[in-house]
Each structure stands twice: as C-alpha cells, then as structure tokens.
Amino acid sequence: MPPWWDAWHEFVRSAPARLTQSILPWSFSAFQFTNEIQGDPEIEYKILTRVAGYGSQLGTLMDFLQVLAERIRPDIRSQQSDVDRYKVLKFYHLLEKIDRVKGQATE
C-alpha cells in the first residue's frame, strides 16, 4: 500500500455513512431577495411563504397584462413610435419564451 493509504482510509471511515440536509427554497429566496428590499423583510417573508412566491406573483401579473394587451392590442403597423412598437413586441416575445419554458416543464 502507498504511504498515504492509512491516512486516507481513516479519513473515509470518519465520514458519515449517510448525510442529509433539508433545502428549503423559501429560506434561500427569502433571504436572498428580502435582504435587498427597503420594506419590511418580515412582511415580505410572510407574503412569500403564505401567499405566493416571486415567480407566482410575476406569473399572475404577466397573465393579467396579457389580457389587457389583447384587449388593447395595437396594430404594430399603426402610427406608434418605434420605441412603443419595440416595447409591445418585446412583451409578446417574453410571453412566448415563458410559454415555451412552461411547455417544456410539463413534457
């Protein structure tokens, strides 16, 4: 055996046979995001854990904006400024990308 074998064998034997760790998504995201918020971190934590996470909140807003956008959907060729046309197209492109990812997640 090589000279380091006994030390390595002793090190491996001292490692736990089974290692578990709970990973709580809310603890990471709540810490990560509420640290940057100027409001009350305790209230943010309660909203994240009792009402809806950031992804769910954003998804609801995107769904609502899509309903509004469909009702007032401007003709892209209308007299809008190039900046406004870009914003509208960017919104619809974002919705398409989100729908594509959601479709892949359910497959």
Q: Main attributes?
A:
69% helix; 107 residues; 0% strand; mainly alpha
Report low-confidence residues grouped into runs of 5 or more.
Answer: none
Question: Could you say which structural class the secondary elements and strand pairing correspond to?
Answer: mainly alpha
| SSE ordering | HHHHH
Percent helix, as a range, is 55-70%
For the biggest sheet, the summary is: none
What is the oligomer described by this structure?
single chain
- What percent strand? under 5%
The 3D shape can be described as elongated
User: Kindly, what is the distance between the CA atoms of the first and last residues, rounded to a whole number of angstroms?
Assistant: 51 Å
Q: What is the alpha-carbon Rg in Å? A: 25 Å
**Total of DSSP H or I helical runs spanning 4+ residues:** 5
Overall pLDDT level = 76
Number of strands: 0
Provide structural commentary.
Helix 2 (25-34) runs antiparallel to helix 3. The protein has helices at residues 5-14, 25-34, 41-51, 54-71, 82-106. It is 69% helix and 0% strand. It is elongated and about 80 Å long. It has 107 residues and is mostly helical.
